[in-house]
Amino acid sequence: MTTTTRSSVRRESSSQSQNGAAAGSKHELEQQPSPNSKRSKKGDTIPSPTEAYGDGKHIPRPSRQKTESNANGIGAKPEKKTTDQDQNQNGTAEQTGARNIPIPSNVLEKGLIYFFTRGRVGIDEPHSIRDIRRSYLVLRPLSQDAKLGPGTIADAGTSRLIAIPKKVLPLSGRDRWVAFVEKSHASFQVLKDEFLSAEDYTTETAGVRHSPAAAPVAEGVYAITTTGRESHLAYMVTLPPELGEVQEELGIKEKGSFVISTRNPQYEGPKGAALPQGPEYPKDIQDEFRSLRWSSTQPKHLDYANTQLLLVGESSGIEKATTTPASPSSTKPQKGQEGGYGDGGGKQPVAEELETLEDEDTHRMQGLPGDDADAIFADLKACAGEHLGLRTTF
User: Of the candidates 379, 375, 387, which has an alpha carbon nearest to the alpha carbon of residue 155?
Assistant: First the structure.
């Protein structure tokens, strides 16, 4: 088993890259997927794109107004800009208001993403994908106009814990499976106490059982984007600097994305993948689904526990996810226009923002003491000594 250190050779800035029971036991699915399954082509009964999104007509546009559930302040006007010099006084690497370039309008949310796994009961150190019980994503949203400076991120109490029962991320359009929001509006303390830590518990039949601690396998930045009809979750990995066997087996890429949809809780979930209880959406969110079984995911959906998500792989990397849809009425800066993304290099504005954020995150994580796991747990305000290191090999 190999763990990574940030003293190892790190790849250059992303712009130069050549590569375009604990928490899980509290929301059990009615039928667990087979631990032998790595990337089943058939899997659960999953809708086609037309079944998921309808005929493409009357697709609701994401609201640009700050809603009550939008607790991370996306779209809000900053009261004060911050600089590298005063970030320590604010106690966070998130420098709200410091991004002085307009963010592409089809970026619904951006932030930091952490990838975790948890071994099966009694297995602290998995030796293969079969030994992993479940994979997780932790999303920590950032303000739209924020950049990343040095230091750790503050606990805004807006993190989401997303469970992936299939254990691996979808890689192509043939890979379609369900995930769900395990926790929403989670503080780092809640994540530490109810997710990251190991737990021993007693059952009447088996006696004392051991649920292992969650182990980090990657960290990076993400953006939830819309291409008009679909939503995508695109990410770029910062740690580990070089992906290994573990990341490859889990479907984690240096640059990756998947289509992400939200199930209408008024309909039953896919066979064998239904949750005992659905999300409690307010009426305005529920009404947006109309009669559709699935709708393109909006960030506000992730603010409700038990939200069920459909992940569909994309073999093209982040290309589709970062394509800005054509809009004659758009007022955002276009390619070559001064004062915005897309001034050169032929890159899409969304891709440029994501790469800029990843470059900032790379410098930020390099400045934190210890190895890669130490940096990740420092960000989450947890002690790395109590947990496993970041693995690249089984």
Answer: 379
